[in-house]
Amino acid sequence: MTEELKKDQRIVLMFSGGLDSTAVAVQSLQKGSIVHMLTFNNGAQKWLDLAQAKANYVIKKFPDRTSWEILDCTFLFHELAIKTLENDIRKCGNLVCVACKLAMLTEAILYCKEHGITKIVDGFKKSQDYYPEQTPEYMDATYRFASEFHISYEHPLWDDLMQDLEDVALSGDIPNSPMQPYCLFERNQVTDHSYIAKFVETKIELAKVYLQTRISGLRTY
Questions:
Q1: 187 falls in which pLDDT band (50, 70, 90)?
Q2: Residue 118 has pLDDT above 50, yes or no
Q3: DSSP string computed for 34-57
Q4: What is the end-to-end Cα distance of the chain in Å, rounded?
């Protein structure tokens, strides 16, 4: 296998340790991908070691094609979500999880630029579009955002409504029970999607400035 082909097989997985991201890890590895699992610390979480424990199961099963790392996104989470939280809620409702997920994605893009990777995946599902960050409004905007930095941002489970994800995890000999951190802001569901697109576009402009500043000092691939 050539070095160039190996590079083409590498992906970044936004990995929580939950069933969805675990299933994506197993699916991707079974298809031959090299999977860099990234978990993110936004500063409002506890039990981050649970994600590491789940990642270790995956690494034990696929030792040559997996890695796990925790990235700190506390600064960007504060800039995008916490600093303007009161004003954002007044204007758009509680979309803090959108800003949080964008902070994580931004750090994932930076990781990709640092390591010469061109694809990011996550465990988003259409059946969970009551979460504001798992809506077409968020996904379309962030797809364009990642593309500006020559990164493909994909959601492998989005249209796969029939597959039993517990069976997917077990097919890789990985425990199918969720093992993920708890966040102060988690399970923030919304019914009104009308503000999401405008909200995320505004936050993306801030994320771009952050990324451009960070990437300017990196080696380019």
A1: confident
A2: yes
A3: EEEEEEEE-SSEE-HHHHHHHHHH
A4: 20
Domain residue limits, the chain: 3-215
- Average pLDDT over the chain, rounded to an integer: 91
Considering the four listed CATH numbers 1.10.3980.10, 3.10.180.10, 3.40.50.620, 2.60.40.10, the one that applies to the domain covering 3-215 is 3.40.50.620
Show the tokens assigned to 143: 């797809």
Sorting pLDDT into bands at 50, 70 and 90, what band is 163? low
Beta-carbon count within 10 A of 210 CB: 17
Angle at 27 between CA 187 and CA 98, to 5 degrees: 25
C-alpha–C-alpha distance, residues 196 and 95, integer Å: 7
State residue 5's pLDDT score: 45
Q: Beta strands 45-46 and 182-183: pairing type?
A: antiparallel
- Quote the CA–CA distance of 193 and 14 in Å, as a whole number: 23
What is this structure's pTM? 0.91
Give the ranges where the chain is alpha helix by DSSP (H).
Answer: 3-8, 19-30, 48-61, 74-77, 85-92, 96-115, 136-148, 165-171, 196-215
Give 172's contacts (C-beta < 8 A, 6+ positions apart).
Answer: 25, 26, 29, 30, 58, 61, 62
Other Cβ atoms within 10 Å of 21 Cβ, number: 28
Q: Using DSSP, state whether 79 is helix, strand or coil.
A: helix
Q: What digits encode the pLDDT tens for the residues 80-95?
A: 999 999 999 999 999 9
